[in-house]
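Recap from last week: sequence in, structure out.
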Amino acid sequence: MNQRPQFKPGYHALTFGRLTGEILRRATGLRPRDLIADHLSRPLDVQAWIGIPHRKSPAPRRTRSSRRS
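Predicted structure tokens:
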């Protein structure tokens, strides 16, 4: 009994990103974030990055609980 597939094959967005990142790393020797910084952000003097830099990350904040003690 032959059954046709119900879905077309494809890559999930997260899988595609990891595969693309690995290809870039092997081709250039740079991580994607460094590649963007060296060849796009710094030459064009713009703030663009992959993954938020530690210095741009907001500090964790304490939240108040809605429960009263």
